[in-house]
Every structure is written in C-alpha cells, then in structure tokens.
Specification:
The protein is built from ten helices and seven strands. The protein is of the alpha/beta class and 213 residues long. It has a seven-stranded mixed β-sheet with strand order 3-2-1-4-5-7-6, sandwiched between helices. It starts with a helix and ends in an 8-residue tail after the last strand. The chain has two domains: 31 residues, no CATH class; 149 residues, Vaccinia Virus protein VP39 (Rossmann fold, 3-Layer(aba) Sandwich).
Length: 213
C-alpha cells in the first residue's frame, strides 16, 4: 500500500495536478492559512473570510498572541489591517490619503477606530503629531521614510514599528537611522495573502519593548 501511495504522489508531482493538490488538500499550508481563499477573492482574509493585514503570514503568526488590549496603535495607510488590529488592541488611529477607500472602509469600522483622511502628503505624514503617544506604529502607506522620521517622537520608549515591504532598497535611509538610535529588527519573509511572491514584513524594536523580544 505504501508503495502505491508513493507512486500516486510521484505521478501527481510530475503533472500539473500538483498545483491543484496544494490548493485543495485539507492540510495544505495554502488552505490552512486561507491563502487560496484570499487569492480567489483578491483580498487579505483568513480561511473563514475574516480580514487580516497584507503582511507576510509569519508576521501574523508572531503578532497574533503578542498584541494586547491596552495598546494604542497608529497606522499610516488603512486597510484590512485596520479591521484586524481593531480586534487586537485598545485603540487604532489610522490616516488615509485615498478618499474613496476611506469612505468604503469606514462602513466596517468599530468604535475603537478613528480613520482620518489627509490628501496632502505632508498632512498625512504629520498627522501622528496631533495624536499623542503610541505603543505601535504601522508604516504601510505613502512616503514611508518620511513617516518613519515623523513618528519617532510619538512612539513610546518601549514601542515598536511594524514596517511592511521592508525588502525595498528605497527604505534603507530610514533603517540606518533607526539602527543608529538603537533599534533592532526582526524580519519575517514569506507569502502574503493572495500573492505568490516572497515578501518581507519587519518589526523594529528597542531593547525593552512591549512584545518582550
């Protein structure tokens, strides 16, 4: 029987059917994390259809049990991540530069989320300065390097930065500056919901931080 099973799998791997197995096998990674459903619907959702951030899956696994209902979070660029974070932290303030997307997302927000529309890039970058101190800053919108520089005075000493698409070379200037301030980094590479290319999401933190890393 074992030889028959091995032969069947050998045939499957040799044929285009192998891709189908990756999508439908009940123990497939793509099925268990909801990647197939995300790919089919072209939006970041888990296997049950609930919204998740467009971060790499290892990042989501890491953060899932570490976020706390006492944290304040500021987000540059709103999205499905806004909905996910609203279930994980005490308060979310998100700034968005796309008016149409802002109106669409607003229909799904809970009472612990404030979504602010700022069309002008400078206003978008500096919105955090009007909002007090935060435990987490998510950088995932426009002008990310400038957003990084702008957010530091409003990031608590033990706060963290979550930076998506961190593999991009044009972010290097900000990363070097953060390193000079004593920030460390942990980078999670892998697939993102609905996408099939390798990407990176990074967490930047100082020695004493809210995640205990």
């Amino acid at each position: 029987m074992r030889q028959i099973i091995e032969l069947v799998w050998k045939i499957i791997r040799a044929l285009p059917l192998s891709l189908l197995v990756l999508w439908i096998h009940p123990k497939s990674f793509l099925v268990k994390v909801g990647w197939y459903e995300s790919f089919r619907k072209n939006r970041p959702i888990d296997k049950n259809g609930a919204p998740i951030p467009w971060f790499t899956y290892p990042t989501l696994y890491f953060l899932d049990n570490k976020l706390d209902g006492i944290f304040r979070l500021f987000e540059y660029g709103s999205g499905y991540s806004t909905l996910w974070f609203s279930r994980k932290v005490k308060e979310v303030v998100s700034v968005e530069n796309d008016a149409i997307w802002k109106e669409s997302l607003s229909k799904s927000l809970t009472s612990n989320v404030e979504l602010v529309y700022k069309k002008n890039p400078e206003d978008f970058i500096n919105e955090i300065k009007n909002r007090g101190q935060f435990d987490i800053v998510v950088i995932d919108g426009i002008e990310r390097v400038k957003c990084c520089f702008a957010c530091l005075d409003n990031l608590n000493p033990d706060g963290i930065i979550i930076w998506d698409d961190s593999e991009r070379e044009d972010f290097k200037e900000a990363w070097l500056y953060l390193n000079s301030l004593g920030f460390r980094e942990i980078t999670f590479s892998g697939l993102k919901p609905a996408l099939f290319i390798i990407s990176q999401t990074s967490i930047l933190y100082r020695q004493h931080n809210i995640l205990g890393i």
